[in-house]
Specification:
Blueprint: H1 2-15, E1 38-40, E2 47-48, E3 50-52, E4 56-59, E5 70-74, E6 79-87, H2 92-107, E7 113-122, E8 128-136, E9 142-147, E10 152-160, H3 166-185, E11 188-189
Antiparallel strand pairs: 1-3, 2-11, 4-5, 5-6, 6-10, 7-8, 8-9, 9-10
């Protein structure tokens, strides 16, 4: 009887050796990014710009949507650029309201953002735009607004419909960010 107990103990000790049985870390899908190609936005808008051929234009279906609000949806990447245009009509108070709304919408992400970098850039077309890059686990990582100060106001914000952490999305964020900067550099206002 004692021998059997001895062998059971020996087998347990050998079987429970110092092997590491940790689970494998979660893997991430390989993201294939197509070469950048652009097309012109339909001329039914009060502005023109080139946008990615990887994106499709979807009418904004929210209950507050206005006539020239739409989404540029990157189906393969799960990315969405919300585009909102508002006419200024030489009304300084409207322009101030639109700018205030843009800053308010950005600041709502301060809860999860650990940095919001804002800069004013002059584009190739001479237009000045305010660009905001948000760091942290925020739903929008890049956005901008641009205006001619008298007739037009345009705001665009990048969103993802995923819970994936932003460090995993970094290649896609940078890819769409470059598309958004291309949109800005090709922007023209209708007169």
């Amino acid at each position: 009887m004692m021998r059997r107990g001895y062998w059971v103990l020996v087998l347990l000790l050998i079987g429970c050796g110092k092997q590491n049985h940790n689970p494998k870390p979660k893997g991430f899908n390989r993201i294939e990014l197509a070469p950048a190609e652009y097309q012109m936005l339909a001329d039914s808008f009060p502005f023109q710009m080139e946008y990615s051929t990887q994106a499709i234009i979807l009418k904004d279906s929210s209950w507050i949507a206005e006539r020239y609000w739409f989404d540029m949806y990157y189906e393969k990447l799960g990315a969405n650029i919300q585009v909102t245009y508002k006419p200024v009509n030489n009304d300084r108070s409207k322009l101030e309201e639109y700018l205030s709304d843009s800053y308010r919408l950005t600041s709502e992400h301060r809860v999860k953002a650990y940095a919001i970098d804002e800069s004013v850039i002059t584009l190739k077309n001479g237009i000045k735009a305010t660009v905001m890059e948000l760091s942290g686990e925020v739903p929008t990582q890049f956005q901008f607004h641009v205006t001619d100060s008298s007739k037009h106001f345009l705001r665009c914000a990048l969103y993802f419909k995923t819970a994936t952490q932003n460090d995993s999305l970094r290649p896609v964020i940078n890819y769409v960010k470059m598309d958004m900067l291309h949109m800005l550099n090709t922007l023209t206002w209708d007169q």
